[in-house]
Amino acid sequence: MASFVSRLHQAIRTKKTAALVGLDPRWEQLPVRIRRAAEEMYDDPAAAKAAAFEEFCVRLIDVVAPLVPAIKPQAAFFEELGPDGSVALARVIRYGRAQGLIVICDAKRGDIGSTAEAYARAYLAGEDPQAAPYAADALTVNPYLGEDTLQPFVELCQKREAGIYVLVRTSNPGAATFQNHQNSEGQTLYEQVSETVEKLALQAGFDGNYGSIGAVVGATYPRELKDLREKMPHVPLLIPGYGAQGGNAADVAAAFDSAGLGAIVNSSRAINFAFRSPAYAESFGEKQWEAAAEAATRAMICDLAANTPAGQLMLDSKEA
Ligand SMILES: O=C(O)c1cc(=O)[nH]c(=O)n1[C@@H]1O[C@H](COP(=O)(O)O)[C@@H](O)[C@H]1O
Predict the structure, then answer these.
(1) 114 and 102 in contact (C-beta within 8 Å)?
(2) Which residue is closest in CA terms to ligand 1's atom 9?
(3) pLDDT computed for residue 1 by the predictor
(4) For the purposes of burial, counting CB atoms within 10 Å of the CB of 44, is it exposed (0-12), middle (13-18) or buried (19 or more)?
(5) Which of 114, 187, 200, 319 has the fewest CB atoms found within 10 Å of its own CB?
(6) Which residues of the chain fall below pLDDT 70?
(7) What is the DSSP letter of 100?
(8) Could you tell me the pTM of the whole model?
(9) How far apart are the CA of 59 and the centre of ligand 1, in A?
(10) 133-154 as b/e, with b when 16 or more CB fall inside 10 Å?
(11) Is ipTM beyond 0.90?
């Protein structure tokens, strides 16, 4: 049995990159051929969209599986479709794992303890993909109901060798409105959450350097990211906001340790829909959307390698 963080770091070392590809299937942006084929096959719009999302994600997984250690399906786009979408999400997660990828389901769950237990059992399969219906290696979790509501997730992480990423400082423009609220000692809410996450990381799946309880910290706030890295030395970070939201490699550099570990950097739209972006539209176009996604993934990998300590992963492979 291997803890979530050991499996993640093994995958990062094997692929020599900390790039994480988000799967965010947005109907209007999918290649037209995939949409039309699904609409011809199914009368029911939700069934057609679910089939198209599954096909798009499976084909994207085939493109990125040889290149990156992990994927992060965004549950919201699937949930919007109702039951058909939920089935498609579960199938996409299983397919990703079958291709050897670490799968982090982004569903941002959180509730009172006894309800949180049910969420944990639904998503956290950990090492055994048969252990949960949405058989993810890890799940994003919202901590704002309190520390007691994280405990059921932590316990299941320990039991099933799974992981969670707790929202600490998010990437959105309004992140500061609640998260920067200060207590009487001048400590922000997100700093208080970070103290709890650092403590929990030592309780579940700790590999000597990092635990299996991670934190989500946005690339769009590099000063806070650097500070939080120092405040949570044993916490693996999931960093969204690179690419479409404006974050770049320099912004995320402080997240990595000297071996290039300790963080994964997510990009969703900039890879999923690279064929629509000025950088790739002309050379690839819609028919070659997979080649555009591959080029965008490779560009991200090179960017992280050249401009962050994650470049050490490449050097280690040359020395080996
Ligand atoms: O938990 C997340 O992944 C997340 C947290 C956060 O603070 N900001 C954020 O953008 N995300 C998610 O990361 C993805 C970012 O997508 P792109 O902006 O297209 O790269 C989306 O699925 C978001 O829901």
Answers:
(1) no
(2) 240
(3) 78
(4) exposed
(5) 319
(6) 317-320
(7) T
(8) 0.98
(9) 21
(10) ebbbbbbbbbbeeebebbbbbb
(11) yes
The 3-state secondary structure of 220-233, one letter per residue: CCHHHHHHHHHHCC
**Strand 213-217 to 163-169 pairing:** parallel
Identify which of 74, 77, 179, 225 to mutate to test ligand 1's pocket (most ligand atoms within 8 A of the CB): 74
User: Which option is the CATH number for 4-319: 3.20.20.70, 3.40.1350.10, 3.40.50.720, 3.90.1010.10?
Assistant: 3.20.20.70
Contacts of 69 (CB under 8 A, 6+ apart): 8, 11, 12, 14, 15, 17, 18, 19, 20, 101, 102, 264
Are the beta carbons of 163 and 138 closer than 8 angstroms? yes
Which stretches of 100-146 are DSSP H helices?
113-123
pLDDT of residue 181: 97
Mutate to test the pocket of ligand 1, among 266, 277, 300 (most ligand atoms within 8 A of CB): 266
* Rounded Cα gap, residues 243 and 247, in angstroms: 6
Phi-psi group of 35: left, alpha or beta (phi > 0 → left; psi -120 to 50 → alpha; rest → beta): alpha
Q: How many CA atoms lie within 13 A of 252 on its CB side?
A: 36
pLDDT of 316: 74
Q: How far apart are CA 123 and CA 210, in angstroms?
A: 22
CA distances (Å), origin 238, targets 80, 121, 139: 24, 22, 11
Who lines ligand 1 at CB under 6 A? 22, 24, 74, 106, 140, 170-172, 216, 218, 240-241, 243-245, 266-270
Strands (E), the chain: 19-23, 70-73, 102-109, 138-141, 163-169, 213-217, 237-239, 263-267
pLDDT of residue 320: 47
Is 213 strand, coil or helix?
strand
| CB contact burial 171-185 (16+ within 10 A = b; e otherwise) | beeebbeebeeeeee
